[in-house]
Amino acid sequence: INESTRSAAWMLPATKTDVRALGTSRTWGCVCNDNSMVACPYCSMVLQRKYAMDLASQLDIETADMPLFPDSDGSRIKKVAAVATIVELAARLGQTTVCPSSNGQLLGGHSMRTGGAQSLAGLGVDPIRIQTMGRWKSDLVIRYSASKGSSGITRDAVRGLADAGYT
């Protein structure tokens, strides 16, 4: 976390087989300008890191050994617990979590990735940037964000025309 630039960088696995996260880093800067109405990646990282460090202190665990997203015992959170949290939060927000026709779960381990791609596309972020940030090697991100991404085409065209001197 770099407080002077208000940005956070972290190491991520480059692939599913890079479990030690030695492959690549990603950086997000503050997008909220201290506006609490926006979910800011940088500010969220600062709060999450503080939570993890406070928990490490309470549990008498070396901070270097504490995962960024620990469970209550200071261990790395399990995927099943993360998915259960996503489902519970969605339910508390009044969202449908089960498909009415098949009775299958609508949310899973990739819900945050697909939802994040859709949200960024809806804000007009270039799909190539989304693909790079999400470490997608395929163009699957286009499918995830297609419906949201098309809504920004007018805004992008107006911006492009202005940049080219047509307005």
Describe how the helices and strands are arranged.
Elements: E1 7-12, E2 24-29, H1 41-59, H2 79-92, H3 111-122, H4 127-134, H5 140-149, H6 153-163
Antiparallel strand pairs: 1-2
Structure, explained:
- The protein is mainly alpha-helical.
- The model has no long low-confidence stretch (mean pLDDT 84).
Rg from Cα: 19 Å
Unreliable runs: none
Strand order of the largest sheet: 1-2
Helical segment count: 6
Beta-strand portion reads 5-15%
Q: Write down how many β-strands occur, each being a DSSP E stretch of 2 or more residues.
A: 2
Q: Strand pairing plus helix content: what structural class?
A: mainly alpha
The helix/strand order is EEHHHHHH
Terminal-residue CA separation: 41 Å
Give a brief outline of the structure:
With 167 residues, the chain is mainly α. The protein contains six helices and two strands; from the N terminus they run E-E-H-H-H-H-H-H.
